[in-house]
Specification:
The complex is a heterodimer. By secondary structure, chain A is mainly beta. Helix content of chain A is about 0%, strand content about 55%. In chain B, the strands form 2 sheets. In chain B, strands 2, 4, 5, 9, 10 and 11 form a 6-stranded mixed β-sheet that branches. A 5-stranded antiparallel β-sheet of chain B has the order 1-3-8-7-6, with no helix packed on it. By secondary structure, chain B is mainly beta. Classes of the chains: A mainly beta, B mainly beta. Chains A and B meet through strand 5, strand 9 and strand 10 of A and strand 4, strand 5 and strand 9 of B.
Chain lengths: ~110, ~110
């Protein structure tokens, strides 16, 4: 049973399109995240939600809009895709007060904008 | 200067050797320290975490933290080809649940 699952795993799309990535966690965690990993492997946080409320919003273009319908789901919608959006997007979750607030990652969604 | 610095490698070692990885960080407010392993085309998976200075051992893995030097290390004993992966250090505690990652060190263990 996958703890943090995200779909789709691979996505190739044209510039200017709008796309969404969905994420679900079955760990019972109260916090969910979106991270972006670029070609140099740097993982950077984009957003964090705690109990459906946005608590971290790093410097991310407005074209990126997260939505958390409940604490087990955090989706990422991207408008007007640009070439520079090509990256791997990881969903993750953690439990507030858990050991080291350790974060558990999904398998990633490989986005290629052409 | 990046908040967390990590040598990208690659680090190539023969099977059975000790793998030594490290990260330095700049913010003394960081409170907890983690190592993640990431296989190709997979998500990072947590290997070890620790709160305090000193050593923590788990099987073939030892994590070391020196808060005075702002330096953390991961040692892998008796390395196996299956240890070939990218290892990312992650440091947190300066701001809520936000983890700051190093860029990862790619490790290749040759049979």
């Amino acid at each position: 049973d996958t703890a943090v699952s995200q779909t789709p795993k691979y996505l190739v799309t044209q510039m200017g399109n709008d796309k969404s990535i969905k994420c679900e966690q079955n760990l019972g965690h109260d916090t969910m995240y979106w991270y972006k990993q670029d070609s140099k492997k740097f993982l950077k946080i984009m957003f964090s939600y705690n109990n459906k409320e946005l608590i971290i919003n790093e410097t991310v273009p407005n074209r990126f809009s997260p939505k958390s319908p409940d604490k087990a789901h955090l989706n990422l919608h991207i408008n007007s895709l640009e070439l520079g959006d090509s990256a791997v997007y990881f969903c993750a979750s953690s439990q507030t007060g858990g050991p080291g607030n350790t974060i558990y990652f999904g398998e990633g969604s490989w986005l290629t904008v052409v | 200067q990046k908040e967390v610095e990590q040598d990208p490698g690659p680090l190539s070692v023969p099977e059975g050797a000790i793998v030594s990885l490290n990260c330095t960080y700049s913010n003394s407010a960081f409170q907890y320290f983690m190592w993640y392993r990431q296989y190709s085309r997979k998500g990072p998976e947590l290997l070890m975490y620790t709160y305090s200075s000193g050593n923590k051992e788990d099987g073939r893995f030892t994590a070391q933290v020196d808060k005075s030097s702002k330096y953390i290390s991961l040692f892998i004993r008796d390395s196996q080809p299956s240890d070939s992966a990218t290892y990312l250090c992650a440091i947190g505690g300066a701001a809520g649940n936000k983890l700051t990652f190093g860029g990862g060190t790619r490790v290749l263990v040759k049979p």
